[in-house]
Specification:
It holds the Pfam family YkuD. By secondary structure, the chain is an alpha+beta fold. The chain is built from 4 helices and 8 strands. The longest helix has 16 residues. It is globular.
Length: 175
């Protein structure tokens, strides 16, 4: 098992630093992702907590707070998992995460009960990690938040993440 992880680590490093495409079979627990909103960074770690690569990212709103309601353009915070991967006509590739999950609903319902958000508010959905519009990767370089709550990075980086991270990979979004 350890040699398989070492092989997966080597393949990930090659995929992250070259145009090499990952051809192996990584398991959902071989990697995890931490997205730090305050640093505008997405970091990938292996199962042994070794840092592998960091990519710059941007979000929705300039307000980096936790997502409250549908349409607020904020990126949710918490622990999620990649639930689907697909090519995307506008943003290169799309790694869908399981927002809203049980943790998200719990925070949402507590905020409703406290009157922080309206009783008729909706939680939203369709959050993921994706690329940028064609020829607009400068938004990532300039830290221009433009999404509806998703995490966006350069297309070359989303291609590498798409090739390596399997469905089921844990994604932690924090501030």
């Amino acid at each position: 098992m350890k040699s398989l992880r070492n092989f997966a680590l080597l393949i990930f490093i090659l995929a992250a630093t070259t145009s090499f495409k990952y051809l192996g079979t990584a398991g959902k627990d071989d990697f995890y992702v931490i997205i730090d909103k305050s640093d505008y960074e997405l970091k990938v770690y292996d199962a042994a907590n070794n840092w592998l690569v960091t990519y710059p990212v941007v979000f929705g709103s300039k307000d980096l707070g936790d997502k409250l309601v549908e349409g607020d353009r904020k990126t949710p915070e918490g622990t999620f998992h990649i639930v689907a991967k697909r090519p995307h006509a506008k943003w290169e590739r799309f790694l869908s995460i399981d927002y809203p999950n049980a943790e998200s609903y719990q925070k949402f319902n507590e905020r409703k009960a406290q009157g922080i958000i309206p009783a008729n508010a909706k939680i939203g959905g369709s959050i993921g990690i994706h690329g940028t519009w064609p020829h607009e990767e400068f938004a990532v370089d300039l830290y221009q938040n433009w999404t509806m709550g998703c995490v966006s990075t350069k297309n070359e980086y989303i291609d590498k993440l798409f090739d390596v991270l399997p469905v089921g990979t844990r994604v932690i979004i924090q501030r």
